[in-house]
C-alpha cells in the first residue's frame, strides 16, 4: 500500500516533457544550435499542437531551406494552404517562392504571380525579378528592374532569401561554350 501511495505522489509531481511548452523550448534550442533536421520534427510536432501557427510554420519552412530540402518545404506549404492554415505572412510567402525558384517550379510561380504586375506586392518584387531571369525572360526582367515600381520600393529586408538565386543569375559566372 505504501508503494502505491508513493507511486501516485511521484506521478502527480512528474513533469510532462512532451507538452507544448517543453517542445517549444527544445525546438528553439535545436534551431539555434543549427540542428535543423531535428528542429524540423519538433516544429512539425508543435504545428500539431497549434495548427497554422505563423511562427511554427515559418520556423519549419526555414529549417527546410537551411537543409536545402525545398521539395519538403513546398509540400508543407501546400498542405497548410489546403487546410486553410496559412497566415498572411509575407515572410512565409517569400520562403515559398524561394523554394519554388530553387526547384525550378516556374509554372507554379507563374500562377502565383499572375498576369497583372500591379497585383504583385512590392515585398515580392525581387522574387518576381529572379523568376523572370531564371525563366529566361531577360529583356522583360531588365525592363522590370528599371521600372518605377521596382526602383521605388523601400523594403529590402528579405533580400537574404534571394541571394542564392541572384548568384545563379549572374551572367559572369556562366562560361561560353565557345571558350570552354
What does this protein look like?
The structure is a single chain. The chain has helices spanning 2-13, 20-32, 36-49, 54-66, 70-82, 90-102, 106-113, 125-135, 138-145, 148-151, 159-169. By secondary structure, it is mainly alpha-helical. It is elongated, with a radius of gyration of 22 Å.
Q: Could you give the count of β-strands?
A: 0
> From the alpha-carbon coordinates, what is the Rg to the nearest angstrom?
22 Å
What is the count of helical runs?
11
Backbone structural class:
mainly alpha
Major β-sheet annotation: none
* Oligomer state of the chains in this structure: single chain
SSE run? HHHHHHHHHHH
State the distance separating the first and last CA atoms.
85 Å
> Could you estimate the helical fraction of the residues in percent?
55-70%
Task: Write down the overall geometry.
Answer: elongated
| Poorly predicted ranges | 9-14, 173-180
Question: Overall pLDDT, averaged?
Answer: 78
Q: Give the DSSP E fraction (strand runs of 2 or more residues).
A: under 5%
